[in-house]
Amino acid sequence: MGPPTGRNMSGSNNMNCSFSDVDNLSSTLQLAVHIPTFFLGLLLNLLAIRGFSGFLKKRWEGYAATAIYMINLAVFDLVLVLSLPFKMALSYHRAQSQPLCTIVECLYFVSMYGSIFTISFISLDRYLVIRYPMLFSHFRSPTKTFGICCTIWVLVWLGSIPVYRFHKGQKSYRCFHNMTNDTWKPEIVLPLEVFGFLLPLGVVVFCSSRTICVLLSRRNLTQDWAQQKACIWTIAANLAVFVISFLPVHLGFLLQFLVRNNTIMNCPAKQSISMFLQLSLCLSNMNCCLDVFCYYFIIKEFRAGLRAHRPSRVPLVRQDTVNTRN
To answer: What membrane topology does the annotation report for this chain (predicted)?
Structure first.
């Protein structure tokens, strides 16, 4: 699904450029970040899936579509969490099994881009429900939402096909390292940047900003302004988290693409890019834990809405003002 990072990513171009210092620092950083991320992410995402599944089992119609999206996002986060121990272990040792290495690399990038696409659809869904509540309600159903989530899974797995060529023809390599030159061809990296990040980023930014504008315009027309104000701040904060998490890593992919295609040839620049890419990936991995705070807020809103017995107000703020990373 996307080009991984690691030592020796520039292949033969780096033969005269040492990355040992980068390797040592990035290894320590990954251990410090990935170990707590694994345990926290595993526990919290399992709890999130359990919580949202409860709403589906009780068949509360007003909450089903949102719950399906959030379960899908939590599952993608869980896949990322489960891939982290294998990523750490396999990236430090020579690959003994190419199929195992490929599967772990696929899972890692499928989870990343599955999360990005799920957040994009959540943002679009939320915007349409709030901006066109009467019109969009006729097209929205749990079945269609489930179909969209299944489509996302199909798309990200199809997009992971290039991963199977990361180590093609290599006899000695480490997983997430030593990528072939084919990995960094323009026909792979540029579509990844455009369709894997820039297009979803545009959707998230547009929908989140427009949703905030719509809620602000209704300030004097609703008695729930305090609730809507909280939603506005949550949407803005999660949008910032989304940008901070995924913009650096895709900038790193682009810079590494320039290195591998001999546009950037300065050794210190290559070392800095490699370190930057490691840092940005660690930052993006932490989102599988940060999302849990969003899940908690949504479940809290669901329960508050049910206790208040105000289903007519749910579609505007509580039901579909889904607060995720965006």
So the answer is: Multi-pass membrane protein
